[in-house]
Amino acid sequence: MPRLETLMTDDLRAFRRQAGDRHTAFKARGLKLDSTRGKPSAEQLDLSNALLDLPGTDGFKAQDGGDCRNYLGDVRGLPEARALFAPMLGAPADQMLVGGNSSLTLMHDLIVFALLHGVPDGTASWSAQAPVSFLCPVPGYDRHFSICEGFGIRLVPVPLTGHGPDMDVVERLVAGDPGIKGMWCVPKYSNPTAETYSDETVERLAAMRTAAPDFRLFWDNAYAVHHLTDRPHQLADILAACARHGHANRPFVFGSTSKVTFAGAGLSLFASSTANLDWARKHLSRQSIGPDKLNQLRHVRLLRDMAGIAALMERHRQILVPKFQRVQAVFAEHLDGAGVARWTEPEGGYFISLDVRPGSARRVVTLAQEAGVAMVAPGATFPYGKDPQDQNIRIAPTFPALPEVGLAAEGVALSVLVATSEAILAERESHS
Ligand code: PMP
Q1: Pocket test for ligand 1, best of 258, 299, 394 (most atoms within 8 A of CB)
Q2: Rounded to two decimals, what is the model's pTM?
Q3: Which key words tag this protein in UniProt (predicted)?
């Protein structure tokens, strides 16, 4: 594959025509492929089918004899569920709660409580201290951003570096603005770049001076156990690091079993300092008598312990690795050497992050969609849906079957070639 920038204009026109023909032929196949959201495939969901028969008509009693068909009244969830998931979040069991079916709901609700009531260490509610801002490492998770957008919280992008956010930028911003109350972090196998925050990044986030005494890290460890290699990334312990630096109340740690068992029908996890946990508990217990204990019981029976979780995640890995490899192979086949795109080779998580020529991502997504590949909206990985460089595209290879994953990647690669050759030609014409 020639480097497109180095082609003479006539050759580039020929290349553009040829790529266009291949794209048209692909389109004519009338495929319907889905690379939108990071959903598990049916084959992955089947791994947890035993949940559908649990806890069973004679297994609905909790460890302490409590009847899980009835109100039990502890908003922190079943003790055995807390004990099971505490090590997944790296928290003591008495500093965590297991909630309902969505960790996003927990994040949303804790933000609402902070806006309305304030958090421990705060002198007033966040909304009384408006304007409120959150730092957003980019590219990031669109649903984090939209929670804030819904409440008028300003989103301030911070570049990711490959080992977490650019800490020089973060430290400068949080030290200078008491309106910065929070920061979104997906610290392990980040969505979508798959990077894991380095020990130094974690240490600096724990130690940094914030102008806001009521600043919180929204530490969404959604991919804590979602390895794609046999060399799992190790993430430093944010709870311990913050406590060591005298900022025990800084981290709100979240987790989820949406991509362990059933998506949107699993469990949400939250761990934090005792003061934060008491605060969350107080507000959550006004909202609900308690989470779905039967679902917690089923999960305890299926997963048992961290070894059980690891064994299940290993089976997910067997299904996922070939899909990620297929995308890598197809991208390499079509794009290597053309100098038109860079993509990640994730070691965990659910996404491949594709960076195309600045100014081209929108066009690539349009072309891919025309070719039958449903993609997440361009810009979705940035606050307000606006990628200032128009270059990042999130590829989600987990949901379709393996052959479709390869076809979708081919549709995207052809779209990259068409969009890039078009863009270079347009640029040359505007200069001539
Ligand atoms: N956080 C991140 C980073 C995610 O990628 C996702 C999507 N699976 C979620 C949270 C959603 O989790 P839940 O289903 O528990 O709301």
Answers
A1: 258
A2: 0.97
A3: DNA-binding
Q: Would the ipTM clear 0.90, i.e. be above it?
A: yes
User: Rounded to whole angstroms, how far apart are CA atoms 260 and 310?
Assistant: 10
**Radius of gyration for the alpha carbons in the chain, expressed in angstroms and rounded:** 23
Tokens found for residue 391: 């270059």
Domain ranges of the chain: 4-45+310-431, 70-303
Q: Which residues contact 28 (CB under 8 A, 6 or more apart)?
A: none
Q: What 3-state DSSP class applies to 256?
A: strand
Q: How far is the CA of 314 from the centre of ligand 1 (A)?
A: 20
CATH class given for the domain over 70-303: alpha beta
Q: Which two tokens stand for residue 158?
A: 């911070």
| Cα(68)–Cα(70) distance, integer angstroms | 5
- Reduced to 3 states (helix: H, G, I; strand: E, B; else coil), residue 316 is helix
Q: What is the pLDDT of residue 431?
A: 81
Which residue's CA is minimally distant from atom 6 of ligand 1? 222
| Widest CA span in the chain | 80
Residue 36: what pLDDT? 84
Q: Which atom of ligand 1 is nearest to the CA of 103?
A: 15
- Nearest atom in ligand 1 to the alpha carbon of residue 141 is 3
Instruction: Report CA(218)–ligand 1 centroid distance (Å).
Output: 13
pLDDT along the chain (432 residues), means of 10: 93 96 95 88 98 96 96 94 96 96 98 98 95 97 97 98 98 98 98 97 98 98 98 97 98 98 98 98 96 98 98 98 97 96 97 96 96 92 96 95 95 97 94 78
From residue 281, how far is each of 98, 270, 430 by CA, in Å? 11, 11, 61
Q: Encoding tokens for residue 240?
A: 């311990």
Give the H/E segment covering residue 135: strand 133-138
Q: Which atom of ligand 1 sits closest to the CA of residue 106?
A: 16
| CATH code assigned to 4-45+310-431 | 3.90.1150.10
What burial class does residue 403 get, using C-beta atoms within 10 Å of its C-beta: 0-12 exposed, 13-18 middle, 19+ buried?
Answer: exposed
User: What is the sign of the dihedral through the CA atoms of 353, 154, 103 and 187?
Assistant: positive
Nearest CA residue ID for atom 1, ligand 1: 222
